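Late entry, flavin mononucleotide complex.
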Amino acid sequence: MGYKEVNLNLGCPSGTVCAKGKGAGFLKDTSALQSFLDDIFSYSESDGMKISIKTRLGFSDPEEFYALTDIFNAFPLSELIVHPRIRTDFYKGEIRKEYYAYALEHIKCPLVYNGNIFSSSDYEEVSRAFKSTPDPVMLGRGLVSDPDLSGKLKGFSSDTDLQKLERLHDTLYHEYQKVMSPDINVLYKMRELWTYWQVLFDGKERDFKRLFKAKKYPEYEETVSRILLAE
Ligand SMILES: Cc1cc2nc3c(=O)[nH]c(=O)nc-3n(C[C@H](O)[C@H](O)[C@H](O)COP(=O)(O)O)c2cc1C
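Prediction complete; structure with ligand written out below:
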């Protein structure tokens, strides 16, 4: 299909994904992982396809990361993104910084940090912890919560740009409508996003109650305009 790079996600903690031995579930079976990588790298080398990996530290114990490091180092990865948690951490708790420090020392391919960056001060804290500014970084929930986060990390902006948030909202809302129906299915998606955005709008609890209950587009749209306009 014309893609030049495939990113293998060994980070997903979801129960249904891990139960099939995929996502972070793949980290449990290192010999299967090794032969899978043997297989896809032999294909990618002949085809000129780059392969990068996103990983957690392990499935149930962060010490699994040492063996995983040896496996990753045996292949010419174009990039390794490390989310320094284990599967059973899901997205909660402190980042296991000492294992990312180990990755910085031992991983041979370009390394990318991912985890818990929601603000410039989080980014500065990570930089202090590793005594270097991680660049590039991968942003997850922080970028969904604030589409201006990357601009802030680069020092281009300081306040949350609500117009940018509105553009992100409108784009997602209209794109979901093209591929989903009826209204409620699109609104389920939008509700999930509003759980990230809600924190930006103090004192709007009644509007949010209505927004999370809306079943049809007109009611949803009217509530969204009220939330965004009054700011
Ligand atoms: C709801 C949700 C869906 C995600 N879907 C994907 C995905 O499809 N592919 C992927 O590589 N990571 C996915 N992730 C993981 C994020 O890319 C990221 O690794 C994770 O949120 C941790 O980074 P953060 O602390 O910056 O959010 C997902 C995370 C969440 C919370």
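The radius of gyration is 20 Å. Will revisit in the morning.
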